[in-house]
Amino acid sequence: MTEQRPLGSGFGPATTAAEVIAGQDLRGKVAIVTGGYSGLGLVAAQTLAEAGAEVVVPARDEAKARAAMAGGPPLQLETLDLMDPASIDAFAQRFLASGRPLHLLVNSAGIMAPPLMRDARGYESQFSTNHLGHFQLTARLWPALKSAGGARVVQVSSRGHARGGVNLEDVNYERREYVPWEGYAQSKSANILFALELDARGQGDGVRAFSLHPGGIMTNLGRFTPAEHLRAFDIIDDEGKPVVDPARDRKSPEQGAATIVWCAVSPQLDGAGGVYCEDCDIAAAVPDDGAMGAGVRPWAIDKEIAGKLWTLSETLTGVKFL
């Protein structure tokens, strides 16, 4: 694992995705961006496509996705439901059958703090969608990632991981009270741990992994959060308009997507991996101080926990990885 210490990248909270990718030519590169039809994922997908990459956007609601992507750079729409293992396998099989390498896999799709919902297996929806679905998808796409001759997997996590880690004894809330924001924190900590372990296991095949916090941005991700809570979190103002103040981690979609794109393509990260990033730089490792500030918390970069989560994820999905 690369040391969890800022590089001094020269970018910052107000940097946009377009600024990060300026001057890069991604022609010949293939990318998959889950959630690439909405919010940050859409900006990231469009930014990669504008730089010349062939970008595949899998979506559960194709009609909604097609409308959202209209008028932008060409993106390839595909079908995928991250809570449905059969759908994940079918999407991956179609992609592998095309014979294309996969240079960039951006796992951006997610849900945040919904009421208790479960998938068909009985797994809690945030853990199922945000972590297990992407775990299975990455596993199934592994042959294409290896064949790229140098690939990156980017896990879109959140500063929300600071609310708590992964409860390995009860990830699906079968024996404890379900708390929506706690479940979100668990899934976002899982994103960081997955990137840590994936990088350790994958770098021998030329695959490096990163996780990141994009910033506080008003997108459809907040659809389960009441407006009064969004105002209390200073995500929207009293008129319901998104707050944009990057110095306080309140960003526009273009600023929020910047760290996603930086993790995906920046040469500053060549030879690096396994780190959690913020504001287009590697974030600092910080102690658990009970606050929601910058930096990555100890439980999200613990190698022992990462290994245990990997084993548990293989058990829950029935997918053997690597």
Please tag this protein with its features.
36% helix, eight-stranded mixed β-sheet, alpha/beta, 8 strands, 322 residues, 10 helices, globular, Rossmann fold
Describe this structure in words.
The protein has helices at residues 17-21, 39-50, 62-69, 85-97, 125-140, 142-146, 180-202, 227-232, 253-265, 303-317; strands at residues 30-34, 54-59, 76-79, 104-107, 151-156, 207-213, 276-278, 281-282. The protein has one domain (17-218, 253-317): NAD(P)-binding Rossmann-like Domain (Rossmann fold). Strands 3-2-1-4-5-6-7-8 form an eight-stranded mixed sheet, sandwiched between helices. The relative contact order is 0.18. Strand 5, helix 7 and strand 6 (207-213) form a beta-alpha-beta unit. The model has no long low-confidence stretch (mean pLDDT 94). The protein contains ten helices and eight strands. It is an alpha/beta fold and 322 residues long.
Secondary-structure blueprint:
Layout: H1 17-21, E1 30-34, H2 39-50, E2 54-59, H3 62-69, E3 76-79, H4 85-97, E4 104-107, H5 125-140, H6 142-146, E5 151-156, H7 180-202, E6 207-213, H8 227-232, H9 253-265, E7 276-278, E8 281-282, H10 303-317
Parallel strand pairs: 1-2, 1-4, 2-3, 4-5, 5-6, 6-7
Antiparallel strand pairs: 7-8
Secondary-structure element series:
HEHEHEHEHHEHEHHEEH
Ends distance = 18 Å
Mean pLDDT: 94
**Shape assignment:** globular
Q: How many E strands?
A: 8
How are the strands of the biggest sheet laid out side by side?
3-2-1-4-5-6-7-8
Q: What composes the largest sheet?
A: 8 strands, mixed
The CATH top-level class label: Alpha Beta
Which structural category do the helix and sheet elements fall into? alpha/beta
Query: Could you estimate the helical fraction of the residues in percent?
Result: 25-40%
Portion in beta strands: 5-15%
What is the CATH superfamily label? NAD(P)-binding Rossmann-like Domain
Number of helices in the DSSP assignment: 10
What's the gyration radius in Å?
18 Å
